[in-house]
Every structure is written in C-alpha cells, then in structure tokens.
Amino acid sequence: MAEYLKVRSDNPEIRWIKRAVEVLREGGIIVYPTDSTYAIGCQMGDKKSLERIRALRRLDPKHNLTLICAGLSELSSYSHVSNGAYRILKSHTPGPFTFLLKATPEVPRRLQHPKRKTIGLRIPANTILQSLILTSGEPIMSTSLILEGQSVALSDPKEFRAELGSLVDLIIDGGVCGEEPSTVIDLIGSTPELVRAGCGASPLFKQY
Fold first, then answer.
1. Selecting from 3.30.230.10, 3.40.190.10, 3.90.870.10, 2.40.33.20, what CATH number does the domain 3-205 have?
2. Side-chain half-sphere of 191: how many Cα atoms within 13 Å?
3. How far apart, in whole angstroms, are the C-alpha atoms of residue 100 and residue 90?
4. Segment (H or E) for 170
5. How many other C-beta atoms lie within 10 A of the C-beta of residue 5?
6. CA 33 to CA 127: how far, in whole Å?
7. CB-based contact 158:164 (threshold 8 Å)
8. What is the rounded distance in angstroms from the CA atom of residue 164 to the CA atom of residue 167?
9. Alpha-carbon distance 98 to 89, whole Å?
10. Tens of pLDDT along 7-60?
11. Which of the residues 3, 55, 92, 94 has an alpha carbon 20 to 30 A from that of 185?
12. CA trace torsion 181, 26, 137, 126 (10° rounding)
C-alpha cells in the first residue's frame, strides 16, 4: 500500500516533504495537491515511473505532459520562450495555468509531444507543491489525477486513498482540491491559443 502523509497546506512539515522527495528519487510515483486539482508525478528523467503513470492514466502518446517548475528562472532551461511569451508567463504565474512551449534538449524526448516537440510548463502557487519542487531541486513530471472513465479529477484523498493505494507509492493529503484542471495555453505561435479552459481561464483571456 502507498504511504499516506497528511501535510499542512499553509506550513508543510519538512520531514514529510523530504520523505516524498526520497520516494521520487527512488523511482516512485506520488500524488500531491496543486492549485487546481490533485496530480500524479515522478522524477523528470525516470523512464519506468513515466511508463507507470501513462498506464495508470491510459494516456495517449500525443498527450502533452507537464513539468512543474519552482519559478520563471527554470523555464529557459526547458523551453524556448519569446519575449511576448515571457511577459504572459510573468504576469500569470504562479497560478493554475499550464503553458505549452517548444522544449529544449534538456527535456527528455519521451516527455515531449512526438510531433510538435512541445512540453507543458507550470509554476504552481500551492505551498506544498512549491516545497516539494524546491526540496527536490528539479521539476516534477506531472499530470492531472483523472482516471479512466472519469471526467473530473479526484479531489479528496480520504476518498481516493483506497482506490490508488496499490497503484502509487505515496499520497500527500493536503486537503480537498478542486475538480477543475488548470487552464492550458499554447504559446508556440504569435498569439496565445486557449487549448483547455479550466481554472483561471477568464482572467487570462480578457486581455486578448
């Protein structure tokens, strides 16, 4: 059964954050809260963990995966960002937005869209997730916790703990999250394109 950690959302206990990072570094997959839904993730370069997540989520090979980063300073390492895109990123992060950008060679090819060579990038406001990324020292490969046959993400760890207990290695309970995923914005072209409307969609697109 998966380890289950109840973590304070306002002031995460560092011992639990360090334990979650240990699990990531050991090749485990973990569940954690974000500023939109609960998500599932693994260490960025771990091929076997990624395959486990793809199988659990039944993900299509063309599904855009996301790197959860601590801040804007990391983005240039993993994506090509134009001046216009950077202004949008700076204005709307941290927050519940996922931005599609051209990946750099630093991003493993298996994480990139097979044809477009893009990667999703996100900078969360959630305190637990920020602590997790900063302690890890690198981005986390992430995707929303939406299981096959479901239209919304799982939101309450007390309810999905038993369902996922044998499928993941660790669950961080940071309280109940929403069921609406992040808004996905494509920043490849000259004009931002709304790919998926979710948390934060209306405020972002009022200006375009």
1. 3.90.870.10
2. 5
3. 15
4. strand 170-173
5. 22
6. 9
7. no
8. 5
9. 10
10. 999 999 999 999 999 999 999 999 999 999 999 999 998 999 999 999 999 998
11. 55
12. 30
User: Quick one: tokens of 119?
Assistant: 């990667």
Contact criterion met (CB below 8 Å) for 182 and 98: yes
Six-digit token string for 58? 């039944």
Domain boundaries, the chain: 3-205
Distance CA 129, CA 175 (A): 13
- 9-15's contacts with Cβ under 8 Å and 24+ in sequence apart are 9/33, 9/126, 9/127, 9/128, 9/174, 9/175, 10/127, 11/127, 12/127, 12/128, 12/131, 12/174, 14/131, 14/135
pLDDT in tens, 155-207: 899 989 988 888 999 999 999 998 888 999 999 988 899 998 888 764 555 54
In 3-state terms the chain splits into helix, strand, coil percentages (rounded to 5) of 30, 25, 45
> Are the C-beta atoms of 170 and 162 separated by less than 8 Å?
no
**Tokens matching residue 182:** 């992040």
